[in-house]
Structures are given as C-alpha cells and as structure tokens.
C-alpha cells in the first residue's frame, strides 16, 4: 500500500508465469495475427499525450475533427478489447492472498469447471450465445472484480444492482438512478434554451418536440423515463430484493429463469435465475426434413430443421430440367443453371447463358429504320416491332404554345416567335425571352428577401439566397460554446470542440468531442503493487485505493514473533498467525506430553478497561491490543480409560483421564436369569463380573430381546414376545468424502438377521443399499497420487484407477528446448524427451558464444594491465625539484617558527609565577 505513489513502469510479463497472449488491433474485426500488443502502460501514456494535445485551445477544422473522432473511436475500441482480455485473464488466474481463500481456491477451479460443464453440456445452439452465457457465469463464479462503471466501486454480493438489458453490465441501483435522472435533466434544460426561428421565406419554425430518454453508460442503449429501475430485482425479474444466499449465484432468486427464448420458439429458459443472455433452446422436437419426405426426427429446438440426403426431383421454372439440389423447403428450388446458346431480345447477338436467363438484353441501340426510312430506332435492345417514327406524330414549338403536324417527319418545327412564359426554377416567375430551344435560364427578378437568420431584408435576384453578416450567438447542443455561424437559420451544427472535462478517476480528461450529459467512464489502466513491490497488476483507473493487492509468490520479509519459523508468501496487513504445534512441555497439566495445540506464543489479545465510566452514549471504552503468550491449554493426548462399570475402554484426554460412567446400560444379568440391569453404567465392586452386583437395580420386566447387529438402541417397550418393532432412531453421519451429512433410520441401515437360502444375495443387496445411503452422489473431493482431482462419484476407500489420470502435463528434454503436453498417466513411463539436432545446434552456439566472450575478456584484461604499467612509469619516473627552491622554502619556515613559540613561553611563565605565589 505504501508503494502506490511510486512511478509505475511496464508490467513484468513473467510475474504470473503464464505465456503472453496476443491482443487484437484497433479495428472492428477480430484479433491480431502479427506482432504482440505493447503493454497497456505505454498505451495509456500515449493516450494521455493525445488527450493533452486535444484539450488545448487551438481551433480545430472540420476535417481535423472528423479524423480525430475516427482515431478516438478506434483507440476506444482497442482499449476496450484490452480491458476485456485483461479482466478475463485476471479472473482466470487471480488467487486471494488470505489463507482461507487460498485453501478454498485450490478446489474452486475444478468445481467451477464442473458447474459450467453440467449447466451447458446439453445445449447445442449458436456458439456465440453459449460462449457469451458461459463467460458471464464464469465471471460470477470465479471473479470478485465486477466494477460499477459510474462510481468505479466494486459490485459486492450484498449490493443492490441493475443490469442492462442489452450488454448485461452491472451497475449499483442508486448509481443508475442518479445517472438516468441527471441525463434527462440536462436534456430538458437544453430543450428549454432552444427557441423557434424564421426561415428565408418568413415562415416560423417552432423548436423541435422534447424527446427525453436516458442511455446505458456502456452500450448507450436508449431507455424511456418509465424504464428507470425503481426496485432491486433478481436477474429473471420475478423477485424483488432477493436475499444473498451463499450457495446461489449473487443477486439471483434461485428459481427457474423462465424467460422467453429468442428467437421465439414457444419455450422458456430452464436454467436457474442467471445473469447475461439465455442460451439457445435445449428442448427437443420431432420434425421432418426440409423437403418433408423423411420420417420424423428428434432434434434440438434451436436447430429448427434438418436436411436429409435425398435429391429434389421437381421440375424447375424452365420446365425442362430437374432441381437436383439437396433437401430444401418446397417451392424454394434454385434457378436452373443449365447453360444453352440464346439470342438477345433484338436478335443481334447470341451467347451461352444459364437456362433461367434465356431472355437477355445485349445493351446496344436497336438502330432499325422506321417505316419512313429516314430515321432509326434509338431504343436499346428490345423485342417486337419498333413502332411509328416519333417525328411523324403531332409536335409543338419549344415553348409548347403551338402544335402542328408536319407534312413529313423530315420537316423541322421552328420557334413560334411568342414569349416563352415557362415557369422558371423559382416557381414564381415566368421566362420573359422569346420561344427558344433548350432550358430556360435563372430567374433574375429582384425581390425583397429575408435573410436566413431573419434579421435583415434586402433585394436580391430571385434565384439567389439572401445572407447577412451577423453571427449567431446561440449556444450549441453542448450547452457551453456559441454557434458563431454567419446568418444561421437556427439549426446550429454540432459542437466540434474537445470536451476536456475531468473524468471521475481524477487523473485523465475526456477526449471526446464536446457533448451533452455525463462523460464516458475512464478507460485507462493503473498499476497496483503488492506489499514488497515485487508483483503488480493493472486495474481500472481510479480504483487503485480500493483494489485488492495482487497475489505475490515471493516470501514475506517480516520476522516471525514466535519461536517457530513461519514461512509464508507476501501479503497485505499483519502476518498470519503461526499454525504449527507448540511443542513445548505442558506446564498446565504437569504431564510428560508436549503441548500439541496451535502455537500460542504470540497471540493478539484485545482487552477493555474494566474501570471505564462512560460520560455519555457516544463514549466507548478504549480497547488495548497486545501481542502476548497465552498459557498452555489442558493436555489433549489420548489415554486409555475404562468406565466405572467395566463396559468399554475409551481414549480420553490426558487432563481428564479419570474413570466415569460411559452412559451405556449396565447389562449385567439379574438373578432372574432373563433380564439385565437397566441402570446406566455405575460403580461396581468387580468390573469384570457379568452377574448382578449389589448396586444393580432389581428386575423391572423390561424387554430382553437382542437387537439387530449394529443397532445400539435398546427396545423401549416392556418385556414382550419377539419380535421387537423396528428401531426408528434417526442417525446422522458423514458421507464417504466427508463433504455432506446423510440421515437414515437405524432399522434401514441395520435390518434384522438375514436367514434363508438367499442370505448371500440379501447381504449383497444390503451392502449396495448401505453404500448408496452413505454416498452423497457428488464428485469425489480426494486427489489422486499425481495431485489431480478424482473424477469418480463419492465412494469408499481409495479412488479407482489412480494410474489412468487424463489431465495434461508438460514434459521436456534435458536442455529445455522441446516441450510436449501428455496425459498425466503416461508421465510415469516417459518423464523426459530426447534432445534432437536443434538442441545440439543451440548447445554448440552457446559454447561458441562463451568462448568468444572469454577471448574478449582476456584481451580487455591485457589492455588494462598495459594502461596500469604506463601509469606507474609516468608517476615514478618524473623529474625532481631544484635544490634552490627547496632551500627557499626551509628559510621561510624557519622565519615563522618564533610565532608558534610565543604562546608556549607565556604559558610556562604563568605556571612558574603561580607556584611562587602559592609558596
């Protein structure tokens, strides 16, 4: 926890000792088939740089904004896939650091696989639906890291949640309610700020109608206001406020789902209440094949239909050939694909085409002469006659005011000389030119027009649009930035600036374009380290303080507080208590046995002040936590002790090894010779005696008939004629695997003595019945000698077939280059592989590299020795100083020596004067 503020580097890929899996590229397709993806830390740094660049105040053009949107969307898809892969990997490999969870985690993997296999083994539908359902079930059974994307908090078993109907993501109920209300409030405020406007024709355009809805924070599915969740419901929505049961999936009611399956087939889901989509319909139906010619066959409802091996012999549309296709629906035969040579519609060309394409057009102009022999047909390839010449019919002038029939189709019809008067493109004015060939021009009439924003009126040509220079001051849909478009018609464009708001994580800013409503959750990753700093994991940004520390396999560095060595892995919080036996002499019972209890030399003890007097209800006594040694508990070593009645000898703890009553009936034969003493085991003079003692109770005429073998419950009736009634005492016992307790009645397990010729068969049947009673019917929890889980049902004795384990293990050659996955049962026969030529080549390369490094090291050492020798010669063979300079220095030193003698002489004189004065 202390290392959270340190700079987080690239995550070590070998911390979990698993092979790195390739991740997908930033495309909408599938996974990457090339280089492995870079670590998410580098991605997050790059994303942060881009966000900082986008968040600047430099104006962005529309083309730049479009490319920015595309890049941000691709980056979001890439990071989203990374998060899904990391979460799946973490849910599969995560192991808690606590001892209790560590012990339970070893058996939870096999149990989870068994549960998923039992749930999905009978489903045979679309692989996508089955895998999606399995993913959600596996995440619930194995992972504890479901996160609410709104508050970035962990979704716990006891929290009230709501799951989206489209993406099935979990959110806290209060968070999604607040999200929906805030989204709709922002849309209402934005609608109130909008106003109506006048268009360029002067018509008043009112503001659009209010459409209020809220979206899922992850998939953006639209929901209506009445869809806001008001109650905490289970996944099948049958029960409100479902109770948290430890043996059920969290947030489920434990009843049948019974949702209508999709596509609609009339059946409902038969799984227990579960998250995520329902799997394909597993029901069986009896249907015939697609062509209805085979007998009924039982298939899964999700498959809908099946195909037989027969060929269709129906006539095709051509009436000549038969279908010949495999079994299909009646009336859905494919078109005939038999080829033949056919002429086009006009008969000019011919080619080989499919039988169902016998009428085809060549695409060329007909060009056949009309009856006038002057003009040719201009239609494309067609069948039948070309008709009359269109120039020989009644024709009009270009403006359409004069119609006449020409004497010949070769005669040309000219203009009439009148005004054209055709309606122009504006729809209000007419053409003022004379009758002319071709289209009319644009309308040039000057009219007063209102500009697009309705603020100015001026005269412009009718075909032109009136525009002014005033800028729109309305706020865009984002609610923050003005429009600033010249002569805006009221339909302001979407805002193209970057949002830049701080996300809930408090570290990154929103990189999307300026938008309305809350921002998307942060999609970055942060690293969380263990206590020793040797292991780190990546979590959702903003959850560093609330995320569980990673499981570290390195040893703990804190010394043990007791006299034992307490080795354990790195952990958070205090070290786990020592679980070894004490082993010291027990001074509590003063016996010769060493203490076998759990180590109690350093135990946390919480004490409260007994003399504390509270001032008010807010005042609580102070608790003192101490680590101290507790006294030894009473000795629990078993010692043989015979009861006071001499019936049985049991092993009692050494601290309580005194004879006492065993609680069984005395059983000594009374003087009557028929009945026995009914008293509970009591003190007698002679324990080995079987006859009545002076302290035994007299005969009370109780039943003396012997009970069946194994039954220890006496008959409660008075003395009677045999047989006795069956024993109805209920007995509780553990099953063979010790996982479940079974209940049975004594007479069912221990029936009366078997007699007759079929005694052997009856005993065998009784033995089988007892085995079925004592077996819980679940999967055996024992491990085979190889360490893998037994696959048999709860059974007595050793696990069957321990040498036929089918689990996959990995073996390799001596050098570690070759590795092969084989069955666990064959590992005992073949433990290693033989090295091949590739291994020998690698060994030779390593030896060559080692010799090369040794050669370089020798050369470097020789060069360093030469440098040292040169330095030595340079240092000790230099020239000496001149004698004259040395004498000058000595003279200077002799001249200054008197300055140091003055203080010494003064001290000596003072001492002499002192002694003289004293005398």
From TrEMBL:
Q: Which domain of life is it from?
A: Eukaryota
Recorded GO cellular component terms are:
nucleus
Annotated GO molecular function terms are: DNA-binding transcription factor activity, RNA polymerase II-specific; RNA polymerase II transcription regulatory region sequence-specific DNA binding; zinc ion binding
Q: Which residues form the signal peptide?
A: none
Q: Which UniProt keywords apply?
A: Membrane, Metal-binding, Repeat, Transmembrane, Transmembrane helix, Zinc, Zinc-finger
PROSITE patterns found in the cross-reference section: ZF_PHD_2 (PS50016)
List every stretch annotated Disordered: 1-57, 80-109, 850-889
Q: Which residues form a coiled coil?
A: none
Q: Name one Pfam family in it.
A: zf-NF-X1
Query: Per the similarity annotation, which family is this?
Result: Belongs to the NFX1 family.
Record-given protein name? PHD-type domain-containing protein
């Amino acid at each position: 926890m202390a290392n959270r503020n340190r700079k987080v580097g690239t995550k070590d890929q070998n911390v979990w000792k698993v092979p790195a899996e390739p991740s997908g590229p930033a495309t909408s397709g599938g996974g990457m088939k090339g280089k492995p993806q870079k670590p998410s830390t580098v991605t997050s740094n790059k994303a942060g740089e881009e966000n900082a660049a986008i968040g600047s105040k430099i104006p962005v053009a529309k083309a730049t904004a479009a490319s920015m949107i595309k890049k941000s969307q691709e980056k979001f898809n890439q990071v989203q896939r990374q998060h899904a892969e990391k979460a799946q990997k973490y849910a599969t490999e995560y192991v808690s650091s606590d001892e209790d969870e560590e012990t339970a985690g070893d058996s939870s993997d096999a149990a989870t696989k068994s549960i998923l296999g039992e749930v999905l083994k009978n489903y045979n539908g679309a692989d996508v639906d089955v895998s999606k359902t399995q993913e959600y079930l596996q995440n619930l059974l194995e992972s504890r890291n479901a996160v609410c994307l709104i508050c970035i908090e962990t979704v716990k078993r006891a929290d009230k949640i709501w799951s989206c109907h489209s993406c099935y993501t979990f959110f806290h109920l209060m968070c999604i309610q607040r999200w929906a209300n805030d989204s709709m409030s922002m849309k209402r405020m934005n609608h109130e700020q909008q106003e109506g406007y006048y268009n360029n024709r002067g018509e008043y355009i009112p503001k659009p109608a209010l459409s209020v809805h809220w979206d899922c924070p992850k998939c953006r599915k639209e929901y209506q206001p009445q869809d806001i969740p008001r109650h905490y419901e289970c996944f099948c929505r049958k029960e409100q406020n479902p109770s948290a049961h430890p043996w059920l999936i969290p947030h489920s009611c434990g009843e049948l789902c019974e949702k209508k399956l999709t596509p609609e087939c009339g059946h409902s889901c038969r799984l227990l209440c579960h998250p995520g989509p329902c799997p394909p319909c597993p029901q069986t139906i009896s249907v015939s094949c697609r062509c209805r010619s085979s007998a009924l066959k039982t298939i899964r409802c999700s498959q809908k239909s099946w195909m037989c091996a027969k060929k269709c012999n129906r006539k095709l549309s051509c009436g000549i050939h038969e279908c010949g296709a495999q079994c299909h629906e009646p009336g859905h035969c494919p078109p005939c694909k038999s080829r033949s040579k056919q002429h086009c519609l006009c008969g000019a060309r011919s080619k080989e085409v499919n039988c169902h394409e016998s009428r085809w057009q060549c695409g060329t102009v007909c060009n056949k002469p009309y009856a006038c022999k002057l003009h040719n047909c201009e239609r494309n390839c067609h069948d039948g006659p070309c008709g009359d010449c269109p120039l020989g019919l009644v024709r009009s002038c270009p403006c359409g005011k004069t119609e006449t029939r020409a004497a010949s189709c070769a005669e040309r019809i000219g203009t009439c000389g009148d005004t054209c008067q055709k309606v122009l493109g504006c729809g209000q004015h007419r053409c003022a030119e004379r009758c002319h060939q071709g289209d009319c021009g644009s309308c040039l009439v000057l009219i007063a027009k209102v500009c697009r924003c309705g603020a100015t009126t001026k005269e412009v040509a009718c075909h032109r649009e009136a525009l002014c220079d005033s800028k729109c001051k309305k706020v865009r849909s984002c609610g923050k930035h003005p429009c600033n478009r010249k002569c805006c018609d009221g339909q302001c464009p979407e805002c193209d600036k970057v949002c830049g708001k701080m996300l809930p994580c408090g570290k990154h800013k929103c990189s999307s374009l300026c938008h309305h409503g809350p921002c998307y959750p942060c999609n970055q990753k942060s690293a969380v380290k263990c206590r020793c700093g040797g292991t780190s994991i990546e979590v959702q940004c903003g959850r560093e303080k609330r995320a569980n520390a990673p499981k570290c396999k390195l040893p703990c560095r804190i010394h043990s507080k007791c006299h034992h060595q307490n080795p354990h892995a790195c952990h958070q919080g205090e070290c786990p208590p020592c679980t070894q036996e004490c082993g010291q002499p027990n001074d509590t019972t003063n016996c010769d046995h060493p203490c076998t209890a759990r180590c109690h030399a350093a135990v946390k003890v919480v004490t409260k002040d007994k003399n504390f007097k509270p001032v008010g209800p807010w005042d609580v006594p102070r608790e003192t936590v101490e680590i101290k040694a507790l006294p030894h508990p009473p000795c629990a070593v078993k010692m043989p002790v015979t009861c006071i009645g001499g019936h049985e000898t049991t092993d009692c703890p050494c601290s309580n090894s005194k004879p006492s009553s065993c609680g069984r009936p005395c059983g000594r034969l009374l003087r009557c010779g028929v009945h026995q003493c009914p008293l509970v085991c009591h003190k007698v003079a002679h324990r080995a005696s079987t006859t009545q003692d002076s302290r035994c109770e007299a005969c009370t005429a109780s039943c003396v008939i012997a009970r069946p073998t194994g039954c220890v419950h006496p008959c409660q009736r008075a003395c009677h004629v045999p047989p006795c009634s069956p024993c109805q005492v209920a007995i509780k016992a553990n099953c063979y695997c010790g996982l479940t307790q079974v209940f049975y009645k004594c007479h069912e397990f221990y029936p009366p003595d078997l007699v007759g010729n079929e005694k052997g068969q009856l005993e065998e049947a009784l033995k089988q019945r007892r085995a079925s009673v004592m077996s819980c019917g679940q999967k055996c929890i024992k491990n085979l000698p190889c360490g893998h889980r037994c696959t048999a049902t709860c059974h007595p004795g050793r696990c069957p077939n321990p040498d036929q384990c089918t689990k996959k293990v990995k073996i390799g050659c001596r050098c570690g280059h070759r590795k092969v996955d084989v069955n666990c049962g064959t590992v005992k026969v073949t433990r290693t592989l033989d090295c091949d030529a590739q291994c020998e080549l690698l060994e030779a390369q390593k030896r060559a590299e080692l010799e090369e490094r040794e050669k370089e090291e020798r050369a470097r050492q020789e060069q360093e020795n030469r440098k040292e020798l040169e330095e030595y010669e340079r240092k000790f063979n230099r020239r000496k100083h001149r004698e004259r300079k040395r004498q000058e220095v000595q003279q200077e030193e002799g001249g200054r020596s008197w300055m140091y003698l003055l203080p010494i002489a003064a001290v000596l004189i003072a001492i002499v004067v002192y002694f003289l004065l004293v005398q």
